[in-house]
Write a structure and sequence with these properties.
The chain has about 425 residues and is an alpha/beta fold. The protein is built from eleven helices and 18 strands. Strands 1, 2, 8, 9, 10, 11, 17 and 18 form an eight-stranded mixed sheet that branches. The chain has an eight-stranded mixed sheet with strand order 5-6-4-13-14-15-12-16. Strand 1, helix 2 and strand 2 form a beta-alpha-beta unit.
Length: about 425
Amino acid sequence: MRFSGLRVLKEGLTGNKGWQPHWRDPEPKPAYDMVIIGGGGHGLATAYYLAREHGLTNVAVLEKGYLGGGNVGRNTTIVRGNYFLPGNSEFYSHSLKLWEGLEQELNYNVMHSQRGLINLFHSDGQRDAFARRGNAMINQGDDAELLDRDGVRAFLPYLDFDNARFPVYGGLYHPRGGTARHDAVAWGYARGADARGVDLIQNCEVTGIDIDGGRVTGVQTSRGAIGAKKVGVVVAGRSSQVAAMAGLRLPIESHILQAFVTEGLKPCIDHVVSFGMGHFYISQSDKGGLVFGGDLDFHASYAQRGNMPMMEHVMEAGMTLMPMIGKARVLRSWGGIMDMTPDGSPVIDRAPVEGLYLNCGWCYGGFKAVPGSGHCFAHLMATDRPHEAAARFRLDRFRTGHGLMDEEGTGSQHNLH
């Protein structure tokens, strides 16, 4: 079933009786060539690209709940490619290019809106840092424009420019940045993978990883044993727990990141805006709600909910940056489990166990990385060679200290990234 304007019109005139399910609900087979643990954005994208790019369709995605019920449905939907360090820069540039053709490729409206992203700076030192970042982005082939105070005011007249503590000096403008509909991204990849023969198995929790002679042979699940020649672990904040089933201890801490949305409002924020002194970021959804977030809760947890002190901290940052937000009523909040690495950058690599592959440690970068992560992880699983865009996301950098990518320059403390 393909989507088109004509199909929508036809179904609207005939009672919407011709729509079909987006994907099948198959029973698990006894064995597959590849099993992907995790039915979020990264896992579904991996399955899609395994089928599309490499012709591998004897693949199963195992999800303990429902597809898209984890972090891919619990974020602030921001898409950007404004990273600075080699390794991160080329990867997120690669992912952004995939975003830009995603709707046509999937024949699915993921509501990708390149409305532009502006990172504000509030001191001379921050200006210098963003100038360097902008130059690195341009050298990578992406877009960046350094705005002065008046340049920012032309885009964002509603900010508190003369705040005594954090006056706005200017901003780094990334026109190709923007947002996408988080659940639509998961559904689009699920639909594309299923159409190519991949089995998407929901309500199937992995309870063990079978290893024989140092090699993966399959997994144990709540729906029985499933054999597999290769197993990919793509479970975000649960990475440490699942890896422990294979006897691995990962350099990851799991922390909570909260997000918030207000009641629907008339259009008032046209861009994605990031506050340089408060780690506050905000955009307006197509429904009209203001979607915003801030720092981690700063304590390790597997709970998908936040705490009141961090809620207050985020609201204070929002009020400092744009006092007008105080007139909006918060509709709801939610929490995602972030798998935080010591250097703030991810891992896409083979595990020490033969046939086991790891995709984890996305910190704040998980949603925007979905297409690039799936594309690169599928390449790794299919060929046993890293994709050039993700070649630096090695697991052993934390053991050797070589190739660390401390994007924010905050050292080796997990919760500061």
